[in-house]
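Today's session is about reading a structure prediction critically. Students often jump straight to the picture, but the first step is always the sequence itself: look for stretches that repeat, for charged clusters, for runs of hydrophobic residues. Only then move on to the predicted structure, which in these notes is written as discrete structure tokens rather than atom positions. Here is the chain we will use throughout the hour.
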Amino acid sequence: VQLVESGGGSVQAGGSLKLSCAASGYPYTNYYMGWFRQAPGKEREGVACIHVDGVTQYADAMKGRFAISQDNAKKTLYLQMDSLQPDDAALYHCAISRAYAGWCSLNANNYDYWGQGTRVTVSS
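Below is the predicted structure for this chain, in token form.
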């Protein structure tokens, strides 16, 4: 399984970025994918997730600013991030999990495979 993130970079506060995660080799037909982030000195936190059928979940701090989406044909996951703030700076990872129901989880322990991450820097 390979998950490759891209789209990170440096933006000023209030700016936007769109992250992508190209997935390949996963053995699931029922699955969900998620975005997580980890800033230096902080614990990893869930950002958003999406089930293959389109059900989504967001962390409260991201609601209204971030939007997760997927292109199942391209096997690509996206994260549109708007109104970025310095607190959003982190290494962003995508991950994939087998699904046993029609929802997704923001619990990192549920995920089976992870990408290496793409870094987001936000200057004030």
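Discussion point for the tutorial: Residues 16 and 82 are 4 Å apart (CA to CA).
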